[in-house]
Amino acid sequence: MKRHLLPAVFLFLGTSLSIPVTAQQTAAEFFESGINRSKSSDFTGALQAFSMAITMNPENAPSYYNRGLAKANLKDHRGAILDYDKAIELNSKDAMAYLSRGVSKSRQDDHRGALLDFSRSIELNPDDPQAYYNRGISRSRIDQYQGALTDFSKAIELEPANAYSYYARAITRQKLNDFAGSLTDFSKVIEITPKRAQAYAGRGLSKVELNDFTGAITDLNKAIELSPEDGESYFYRAYAKGKLDDYKAALPDYERALALKPDNYRAYYGRGFCRSKLGDQKGAVQDFNQAIEINNVYVDTKVVYNGRISRAILDNLRNVVQERDKINELSAERAEAYFSRGVSKNKQGDSKAAIVDLNKAIELNPAYSEAYFSRGMIKSAQGDQKGALTDCNSAIKLKPGYAEVFYVRGLIKHSLGDENGGCLDLSKAGELGYNPAYKVISEYCN
Fold it and tell me: Fewer Cβ in 10 A, N or C end of the chain?
């Protein structure tokens, strides 16, 4: 009996026709009828025909296999798996049966079971690119990214023009933080299928990770042109614009991202950040509230200023330090949102509430050097120089090249009478590129 292998992909459901049975029809004829109905996408009719063939010849593995394919195309993957089981029981060397069973298992989220089937299919037919591709997908679903990368590379070696394999490998490389490597694969996908929006979006995201924000915007422009309802592309384009300090242009992209996905807390955070930079602190705080909601109070300390840098001079010199924070990816803990809300609240004059938010940011991310520094700046402005020094120490420990922190710590030390330590810090700040330190050194360290 001739075997016809249908591709292990799922087609659209066709019109069902009943199977007229005559005394003269044989199992082979029902089988051929099933094949023809499958070719015309009449999977219900095909299923009936293969069932008749199985009734007349229950030991024919191809009938079970092809009926399984018909069921799979009808989205009956559990039933399909039972037929593939029988086909494999009758012919354990059938690579396509393992491949197709793996596909149905994966549709049932049994990725480990699917992986075993794809591996067996590869053992029996090591030159089938589809088996490597499917196994790579299953491996990626269970976070075996290195193995998935190997499989996608093999699939590409066997079938160099398959855009799906390049795209899957590009996504896998992103998972492995190989953003530079993913660029080549996304570019290949674009070369093969120039209208695929996801490829431009993916390449744009990789460029964001590589700090090529201008290039990212170009790719995301194209992604949005091809897929105007893709909220993530608007989000990352806004993010890239923010990284280029074009906060005004970033705002409408964040707004579009939120219109398409109102629960995108990262977009609220990004929009809040932009609003803060543009002077809209009230709007910024509202957005930071949303970013936080969608997912140690200051005690005054008496300090004696006995250095040549007085309290007034300290406040004046400290307050000219400019923010250098850039928008960063919002983590799952939302520490960045608390941080940015705290900065905005401080700009509104609510330093007490700002401290509370910065405390929370540090609690969520104890390695957040900018949050320690910002909290230290506020404490210093409030007169809590001891607390400010502690925060500056923490910020420097976490980021040893943080020039502005050395500068502020130097001012504080000097104002508290530690002229030597203060001037050493100011020297380090200048060494790290914060040039205003040298003016202070010339006035107060000689």
Answer: C
Helix or strand run (H / E) with residue 319: none
Answer yes or no: is 191 within a domain: no
Q: How far is CA 197 from the centre of its chain?
A: 17
Range of the domain at 46: 1-124
Residue 229, token pair as written in the block: 């309802």
pLDDT at 408 exceeding the cut of 50 = yes
pLDDT exceeds cutoff 80 at 133: yes
Q: At 132, which amino acid appears?
A: Y
pLDDT at 297 exceeding the cut of 50: no
Name the residue among 445, 446, 322, 427 with its Cα closest to residue 437: 427
- Half-sphere exposure (Cβ direction) of 387: Cα atoms closer than 13 Å: 20
The tens digit of pLDDT for each residue in 369-380 reads: 999 999 999 999
| Structural domain count of the chain | 2
Which of 124, 150, 181 is the last residue before a domain boundary?
Answer: 124
- Tokens matching residue 394: 């923490």
**Quick check: 31 and 2 in contact, CB under 8 A?**
yes
pLDDT tier at 295, thresholds 50, 70, 90: low
Q: What percent of the chain has pLDDT over 70?
A: 92
Per-residue DSSP letter, 331? P
Long-range contacts of 313-316, Cβ-Cβ distance < 8 Å, separation of 24 or more? 313/415, 314/380, 314/411, 314/412, 314/415, 315/381
- Average pLDDT of the chain, as a whole number: 90
Instruction: Say if CB 388 and CB 311 are below 8 A apart.
Output: no
Contact predicate 388/379, CB 8 Å: yes
Looking up residue 10, the CATH number of its domain turns out to be 1.25.40.10
In a domain, residue 301? The reply is no
Residue 211 corresponds to which tokens in the numbers above?
């700090």
Contact 71, 41 (CB under 8 A): no
Residue 413 has pLDDT above 90, yes or no: yes
Residues of the chain with pLDDT > 90, as a percent, come to 77
Residue carrying the six token digits 């679903």: 141
Q: Is residue 18 part of a domain?
A: yes
Among residues 69, 104, 124, the one where a domain terminates is: 124
32 is a domain residue = yes
Higher pLDDT pick, 228 / 20: 228
